[in-house]
Amino acid sequence: MDALSWLQDWYSQNCNGDWEHNFGVKIDTVDNPGWSVEINIVETNLEHEKFNSIEVERDEEDWYYCIVRDGVFHGAGGVRNLEEILTCFRQWASSQDRN
């Protein structure tokens, strides 16, 4: 399953008639150019889990970083790094399911 399909499933699993009205997922573009991802993890099984921030910088156009701050997974990256950002979230979230 690709990262986007997995994210759709994760989102669906967290929709409970209430959560989706206050929280959710935002994927946007930024002008450098690149991507911005925000995934709210409040009231999910990830809310209190530790996340080690990630920063990868291969060159000016091939980079991404991911952090969790104030109950939100934040990712940003170059124009071709969206899948890596989503995969980073997927790997972390999936590793918490095994604990």
Automatic annotation (TrEMBL):
InterPro entries: Imm53. Keywords: Transferase. It comes from the Bacteria. It holds the Pfam family Imm53. GO terms for molecular function: transferase activity. This is Rhodanese-related sulfurtransferase.
